């Protein structure tokens, strides 16, 4: 009997992708058959990395994984509408610290209100990545600090180029 693959979406700004994201993606692949890593495009925000750069960095960082199980995409508009279009019923989000909880709790409930067929699954970020966030990475890199051990090599290289004086 053929079973339907379990598809999950891991949405985020990924501006840029960090080792924390990669770790979570790898753990999600142990649970779900297909993972869609979806770069959210918010027209009201000016990102450091363009849509194309964020997708390229994710592709480079995840190149070692089976392309049949991982899709890198982008979306605008509501996450629940995008999830429905991809036939995904699960949204994955990482929780680093208690401070993430309130926003994530609100977002999960808003998404469930918008579409009760889509469930949010939270994964605890490992202790090696709980202090890493894309915004810290951008800040530290902008002021010349080293983020080498917190991001994939391709991200570090691009940050160095962006902030080269
Ligand atoms: O990496 P981030 O910035 O924490 O990701 C947040 C993201 C992109 C997942 C969230 O802002 C989102 O889902 N945006 C799409 C618009 C949407 O569906 N908003 C309603 C849910 S609150």
What can you tell me about this protein's structure?
- There is one protein chain.
- By secondary structure, the chain is of the alpha/beta class.
- The protein has a single domain (7-130), classed as Rossmann fold (3-Layer(aba) Sandwich).
- It contains six helices and five strands.
- A five-stranded parallel sheet has the order 3-2-1-4-5, with helices on both faces.
- Strand 1 (7-12), helix 1 and strand 2 form a beta-alpha-beta unit.
- The radius of gyration is 16 Å and the shape is globular.
- The mean pLDDT is 96.
- The chain binds 4'-phosphopantetheine (PNS).
- 4'-phosphopantetheine (PNS) binds at residues 11-13, 40, 78-79, 107, 110-111.
- The site of 4'-phosphopantetheine has 9 residues, from strand 1 and helix 4.
CATH level 1 class label: Alpha Beta
Mean pLDDT, to the nearest integer, reads: 96
What is the molecular shape? globular
Strand arrangement in the largest pleated sheet: 3-2-1-4-5
Output the number of helix runs.
6
CATH topology: Rossmann fold
How large is the share of residues in beta strands?
15-25%
Order of helices and strands: EHEHEHEHEHH
Q: What share of residues is helical?
A: 25-40%
CATH superfamily: HUPs
Distinct bound molecules:
4'-phosphopantetheine
Total count of strands:
5
Intertermini distance: 60 Å
Main structural class: alpha/beta
Radius of gyration: 16 Å
How many domains would you count in the coordinates? 1
């Amino acid at each position: 009997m053929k079973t339907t693959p379990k598809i999950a979406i891991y949405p985020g700004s990924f501006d840029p992708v960090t080792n924390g994201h990669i770790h979570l993606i790898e753990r999600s692949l142990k649970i779900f058959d297909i993972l869609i890593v979806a770069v959210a495009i918010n027209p009201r925000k000016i990102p450091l990395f363009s849509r194309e750069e964020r997708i390229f960095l994710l592709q480079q960082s995840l190149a070692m994984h089976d392309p049949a199980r991982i899709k890198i995409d982008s979306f605008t508009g509501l996450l629940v509408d995008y999830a429905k279009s991809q036939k995904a019923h699960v949204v994955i989000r990482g929780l680093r610290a208690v401070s993430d909880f309130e926003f994530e709790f609100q977002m999960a409930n808003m998404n469930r209100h918008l579409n009760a067929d889509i469930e949010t699954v939270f994964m605890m970020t490992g202790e090696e990545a709980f202090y890493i966030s894309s915004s810290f990475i951008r800040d530290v890199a902008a002021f010349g600090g080293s983020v080498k051990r917190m991001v994939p090599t391709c991200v570090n290289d691009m940050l160095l180029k962006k902030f080269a004086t």
